[in-house]
Amino acid sequence: MASSTAPRRGSPTRWLLGRLAVGLLVLFLVSVLLFLVTQALPGDIARIILGKDATAAQVADLRGRLGLDRPLVAQYWHWLTGVLGGDLGTSLDNGRPVADILAPRVLNSFTLGLMSMALILPLSVLIGVFTAYQRDSLPDRAFVAVSSLFTALPAFVVGMLLIAFFATSVFRVLPGVSNIPPGDLPWWHPAELVLPVTTLTLMGVMYLGRLVRASFIDAMDSEYAQMAVLKGLSGRRVLFRHALPNAVAASLPAASLVAAVTITGVVVVEYVYSYPGLGTELVSAVNAHDLPVMQACVLVLATAYYVFNLLADVFTTLGRSR
Amino acid sequence: MEVEVSGVTVRADATGHDIVRDIGFELARGSVLGVVGESGSGKSTLALALLGFARKGATITGGRVVVDDVDLLALPEKELRRARGSRVAYVPQDPATALNPSLSLATQLTEGLRLPRREALARVRSLLEAVGLPGDDAFLRRRPRQLSGGQQQRVAIAMAVAPGPRLIVLDEPTTGLDVSTQARVLEVVRELCRSRDLAAIYVSHDLAVVAEVADRVLVVYGGEVVEHGSLARAAHPYTRALLAAVPSSTHRHRLVPIPGRAPGIGADRSGCVFAPRCAHAAEECSSRPPLVEVPSGTLARCWRTAEVARSPRPAVVVDAAPPFSGDEILTVSGLNAGYGGRQTLFEVSFGLARGECLALVGESGSGKTTMSRCLVGLHEEQEGKIVFDGQVLAPRRDKDLRRELQYVFQNPYGSLSPQRTVESSLLVPLRHYFGLKGTEARRRAHEALDRVEIPTHLANRYPAELSGGQRQRVAIARALVCRPKLLICDEITSALDVSVQAAVVELLRSLLAEGLSMIFVTHDLAVVRSIADTVTVLNQGRVVEKGTADAVLSSPTHPYTRSLVAATLDVPDTFEHAG
Amino acid sequence: MSTSVLGRAARTGRARLGVGLLGVVALVVVLGPVFAPHPYDAIVGPPLADPSGAFPLGTDILGRDVLSRLLDGGVNLTWMAVLAAGIGVVLGSLVGLTAAYRGGAVDAVLMRAMDVLLSFPEIIFVLLFVSMLGRSTVLTSALVGVAFVPGVSRVLRGAAIPVVGSDYVLWARVNGLPAGRILLREVLPGVTSPLMVEAGTRLVWAVSAIASLSYLGFGIAPPAADWGLMVGENQDGLSVAPLPVLAPIALILMMALGGNLVAESVARTVGRTEGRV
Amino acid sequence: MTRTHHRPGHLTRALTATALAATTLAGCSAPDRTTAAGSEDATLRIAAATDPGETLNPYASNQSPTQQLRSALLYEGLTRLDPTGKVEWALATEMTPNADLTRWTIKLRPDVKFTDGTAFTSADVVASVKYLRDPQHAAQGLAFIEKIDPNAVEAVDPLTVRIGLSAPFGPFKDIWANVLLPMTKAGTAPEKPVGTGPFAVKAFTPGRQSTVTRFDAYWGTRPMVGTVEITEFQNQQAQANALLSDQVDIASGANPTIARSLAGKDGIQLLDSKGDFTLRIGLNTDVAPFDDVRVRQALRLLVDRDQVVANAFGGYARVANDHEGGTPQCPAPGVPQRKQDIEQAKKLLAEAGQPNLSFAITTDGLLPGMRELAQVFAENAAKAGVKVEVNVVPVPELLSKWGKWPAFIDFNPIPYLPTVIGSMLPDRVGNATHWDNPEFVRLADELFLAPAAGQCSIMNRMHEIEYRDGATVVPAFVNVLMPYRSRVRGLVTDVNGRPLSFLSNVSVGS
């Protein structure tokens, strides 16, 4: 999966710096694209803020105050210089600093994403190795079947069914919505985190577990595993010392991609569980055409995505140079 | 006797056919047995079976492998595991994939020694030094990918020897190595066997290597032993045919290919397996001959050794052509080229007369691949002058130039599109260069296939259905339909079995005879001797020696060429006297 | 080659199960409208009625017959998913193959452009463009397709690089064949297997994505019958009347799972045969 | 965030906890948020719809129901509506006009304190009115007080205010009951407005949550709950889920389906406020063919009102008759109930030259029932061969072309008088149908001058004009539904659909 040019020459550091520079360029392009797209959105932010009762003069006045009547380039330049100076601007919708709005939400989303990753990685390895080792056994077949089912299942359906099952209809043991009150840290509310984390984890494990399983099977079938057997090593040593590290290494790029997908996948999960994270904020910002908030959300998500993607490339490159 | 093997049979689970069948031999400590066979002969399966191991999808169904009075095949799983490594050790064909990429050398070398770490390390250090590698900590901390191919192979050998086995099985350990590296590895193997009183089984497809390293040779064909003994005294028609197909670096002789294809698994085994391709086959060959001692002194599985012995080897020595005096079709002068800023060719100059065959010789890293890419215009970072047929080759070449300068690739598996039939592959250039379609294009394609001796019925086959040699001949045919003036052949025989290589070399020789000019890129001096008129030797991107093939190979002047010639192995010559 | 891979894949058990599932769904999609007892948009009873003789699966939130809507609601999802997967695979292959073939700067630029695209969460991407251009089924399919492009192009670029580097493509380049013809006639046939696997997988994802978008209200406009839309419309009544939600989910799952099984068995067969000629 | 340092080792604890089985987790929630149920300090937890653009400023433009819900707890106007729709005195105790109804003298309630402890005086009223009246502020309630002359607002003494109007206006008391026209302490709006309400703001995070606590020096009935916590949710399903898993006590928004599926579940009851809340289909009279009254009447004849009530609103509605309500104090206007009559509709359409009418109804689906109404209407219309498409657009898009949509779905939650002023007279922004009936305008002017006793007959005549000529299809009056946990006692239904404005007698039991 992972792409792009391996470090053919020059030091790895230079390559990494190059990739980071490209990353900044990508982020810049993302922001330009987003800016242009929002300009084309129907509906004027000033009108959205003022509502249908406001007169045209009031709308024009607000546009002036928000700086929306300046040329596009000037507006963008204003925003960009602000961001480069560490100022993400203020929300058009409610006038609060974007950083204040996003900081707790970034924390919430990242907690959700990182907790899920903390579960996805070991579980995937565990399940992948186990099913690969017990290849074609009943548990293996069951896992393969269930994971097929899950790749076909939209996230909203998983969320909806989990809520119905664990919170509202069948068992009532978990909260049906995962609201983290403002000012609280997400991990003060472990019960609220269970269902969203479970949803992300299920989706992740079903995908990554399959990949680990496949790469573990590859590792077990490899020449070096055969060589280890021919050296008279014990089955356990062949499995854990020879096959496992390589299987895990082979899955690392995919794991990074899963991490990237998990970070961006929180959008849907947050919506389903009303979790106050970046995703829900982004959806409302899009609905309200709140460009500064939208920009900041997408930049955070895109950065996270790019970092994990870069990790995938780094792992792939390490793998290739082996 | 140290090692006694008998009746070893391995079966493919899916089809129930035997991959190797009823193999037996004996081996004394300190001696080396060579196992020779072409691809698909079952020699690797045999090598693994000697450790009581069969690959997925295969089962050892019978036989004994007795080492030090213990029959490995009769041991329960746990004890067999202990016996592996400590009694029988294995050296893999490709250490690049067989060494675990994520473990340090120290770990891989010491694991399974059943010794305290300090002692284990001490033993490993001394062994590494014995195989000519440093035994220091820095080296032991390395991962396999940080070693060269030759180093990896010596580590693999040290790894095999470390637990102190009685028998060591080496599966094609020098395939893919340069001749000079190969020479060092062979030296290590010989030295270890001698000094540690080890029995060794050396599996290879290369007769010259086996003849060099082994005391006796087991020739495997179609999963069976067809001959057992000294190559110099070969009596079996297959062994003799193989020897006839091997080129020699010392003199030019006609190479005799073996017609037909090697039998697959599941071929009819009621009679002699070689009979379908044997020039001496007779009615009696429809029943299976036993492996018996024959007059030459070897054990051979053939009814007709007497007749075979009477037909002498057709060692037709071909004289080198007189030096060419005609105009040069290609002149390379002052060529510098590189990749990504790193220069790989330095001031390379040479010329090629019309109708001549020039061999571009070099080991890996010599720059010969860059050189051929420059010639066909694939390489972009280059400066210097290449004049072809009176025209300076510009980076953007016109259609006719491209047509007249054709290129045949090294790998027979990649040079033809797997999605095109043989005929379709040939129609592409016909359409591109001549705008030909339909009947006329097909006629020209078939003409070319005829020329390379590909039967018409193969025209609609896909490459996957052809043998390596057939594919290489189709690739040549594809070049021929372009009506080239110069053919560049990049290691085109290196991936082929000798019997097949012979056919390709003979084909090229006949094309030369028809006036085609040719550049033959290779590392194999024997092939050079059998085909080239002049030789240009490349080392580290520089031309170190050029001259006629005879002059360069027989009396090399540059030290590098000399070492190359010295490291090149040849099959024994003593053959003629045996009959 | 590819046909034989398909043939071998078709003989595996999982592929048969997949084809069976797809067959059932196809029957519903094609013949369903003929057998629907009521018009899909007719209000024929009280809302969220329990199943009965007149309404075998009950009625939906507006009092329409769930069975009739179910039988009528697959057509849109099907063509939209096919269109989306088609756009994704065609554009993705184009980008991926071009990047692999050209290499260097072209490759870098194309792949970074894909990174830009990938950086938008898919749902936001669709949300933005639907807000911008208005809701339409074709637009939604196209957006889902475009959202697939980066993924497809990466996979195909990866698959095409060895093919582009292979000697037979090299031969074509050396002989100066036009780039378009090389890509189309030499490189593309070399990546048909991953292409087929991609097409299958993307089709499954498209089903899932388009159902999700319809559920969120960005796909097919009411009152049309559509499985994703039905889930969204009726989910508020899940605890009173589960069938109007679960029945379309079951069909979406059958469709996606069937496609998934077929794609997987092709992938497996390819994995087992490719590269070990 | 600021409390991090008090809680070392939380990450590990949370991780372990997450990994544990669900049973251990059920009881585990934010430790300092326990509700002292039944006691003086009980907390009432209300689920509301998300509004990221909300502020505490009660004069802001475009206020969402969530903001209005909170404003009702924090601020008060001069008058207010009681749950039956009657106007009663709040911060004012008397309003006296001059003879020609162009100048009003307002007596203020004595001993009223702002939540910051300062006294409420006439200066605050003057400041509030002037702020509201300044077009620069784009206050949403501006339309209702446009007749006020900003230069003629003056404090006579600390408890008396005099307001001069640019035109005579009678129902002055009614106007001030609007939630959009509260009084705040002079100089505090819009940044940190201070009100006189029964509650004061404790914490406020726009788009997420606000907490208000009881103001103990409140002049009126002291509320029984100590704290009200309003939590915002993305959608009504989430509100319902929160209610079901006991994370909130009241879901302030529920569509009929949710209400139906929650009602009867253990411990959940439904607060069903019947009133004159209308969802209506507006027809733009500037656009053909809706400029033809025959077409409008035909479309009104196509609606199966019983089906709309039963299927679009799940029975939580009552049939309406193509005119606004909001006049609970008046007898019904003497017009026959309009029923579905396909033949008549076809005839009218044919007369209007529109036998194959086809158009789209645009809705943003903001309120429950909007989409469903459009769909039921589309299905009904199909019976007469009228093809109606349902066009669901995002909110910004609906707003951006406000007044330009040919047919759209709109809602009206307020009493008739402000409705007339805000959205039925020509040239009002709220009048997106651009309906302009001279007789209706004349009657409205008459209404503004009429004494209270004469208002009903005028309003009924206005209803009749709506019924005959109006530009909206009003098929039903819709109930406002709020499911709540039965431990909440003392909730009252409200004809104006704002039952959460009346929390004084509400308590939270155990």
TrEMBL record, chain A:
Pfam family, one: BPD_transp_1_N
Subcellular location: Cell membrane
Keyword Ubl conjugation part of the UniProt annotation: no
Membrane topology qualifier: Multi-pass membrane protein
Keywords: Cell membrane, Membrane, Transmembrane, Transmembrane helix, Transport
One of the GO biological process terms: transmembrane transport
CC annotations in GO: plasma membrane
Domain of life: Bacteria
Membrane-spanning intervals of the chain: 20-41, 110-130, 142-167, 187-208, 247-273, 293-312
Main location: membrane
Limits of the ABC transmembrane type-1 domain: 106-312
Family to which this protein belongs: Belongs to the binding-protein-dependent transport system permease family.
Protein name, per record: Peptide/nickel transport system permease protein
High-level lineage: Bacteria, Bacillati, Actinomycetota, Actinomycetes, Pseudonocardiales
Automatic annotation (TrEMBL), chain B:
Family of this protein: Belongs to the ABC transporter superfamily.
Subcellular location per the Swiss-Prot or TrEMBL entry: Cell membrane
Keywords associated with the record: ATP-binding, Cell membrane, Membrane, Nucleotide-binding, Transport
CDD domains on file: ABC_NikE_OppD_transporters
ATP-binding found in the keyword field: yes
MF terms in GO: ATP binding; ATP hydrolysis activity
Stored PANTHER family: DIPEPTIDE TRANSPORT ATP-BINDING PROTEIN DPPD (PTHR43297:SF2), OLIGOPEPTIDE TRANSPORT ATP-BINDING PROTEIN APPD (PTHR43297)
Assigned GO CC terms: plasma membrane
UniProt cross-references to InterPro entries, sorted A to Z: AAA+_ATPase, ABC_Ni/Peptide_Import, ABC_transporter-like_ATP-bd, ABC_transporter-like_CS, Oligopep_ABC_C, P-loop_NTPase
Protein name: Peptide/nickel transport system ATP-binding protein
Native species: Actinokineospora auranticolor
Transmembrane recorded as keyword: no
Bilayer disposition of the protein: Peripheral membrane protein
Cited PROSITE patterns: ABC_TRANSPORTER_1 (PS00211), ABC_TRANSPORTER_2 (PS50893)
GO BP terms, alphabetized: peptide transport
Boundaries of every ABC transporter domain copy: 3-247, 330-565
Automatic annotation (TrEMBL), chain C:
Residue ranges of the TM segments: 17-36, 77-101, 113-132, 138-156, 203-225, 245-263
Regions annotated as coiled coil: none
GO CC, alphabetical: plasma membrane
Superkingdom of this protein's organism: Bacteria
Record's keyword terms, sorted: Cell membrane, Membrane, Transmembrane, Transmembrane helix, Transport
GO biological process: transmembrane transport
Bilayer topology term: Multi-pass membrane protein
Keyword Transmembrane helix: yes
Annotated compartments: Cell membrane
InterPro entries: BP-dependent_transpt_permease, MetI-like, MetI-like_sf
Domain ABC transmembrane type-1 per the UniProt entry, residue ranges: 74-263
Family statement: Belongs to the binding-protein-dependent transport system permease family.
PANTHER family, A to Z: OLIGOPEPTIDE TRANSPORT SYSTEM PERMEASE PROTEIN APPC, PEPTIDE ABC TRANSPORTER PERMEASE PROTEIN
UniProt protein name: Peptide/nickel transport system permease protein
Lineage: Bacteria, Bacillati, Actinomycetota, Actinomycetes, Pseudonocardiales
UniProtKB/TrEMBL annotation, chain D:
InterPro entries named among the record's database cross-references: Peptide/Ni-bd, SBP_5, SBP_5_dom
Ranges for domain Solute-binding protein family: 87-408
Gene Ontology CC entries for this record: ATP-binding cassette (ABC) transporter complex; periplasmic space
GO molecular function: peptide transmembrane transporter activity
CDD domains linked to this entry: PBP2_NikA_DppA_OppA_like_17
GO biological process terms held by the UniProt record: peptide transport
Cited Pfam families: SBP_bac_5
Coiled coil: none
Keyword tags: Signal
Residues of the signal peptide: 1-21
PANTHER family linked: MONOACYL PHOSPHATIDYLINOSITOL TETRAMANNOSIDE-BINDING PROTEIN LPQW-RELATED (PTHR30290:SF65), PERIPLASMIC BINDING COMPONENT OF ABC TRANSPORTER (PTHR30290)
Protein name: Peptide/nickel transport system substrate-binding protein
Organism encoding this protein: Actinokineospora auranticolor
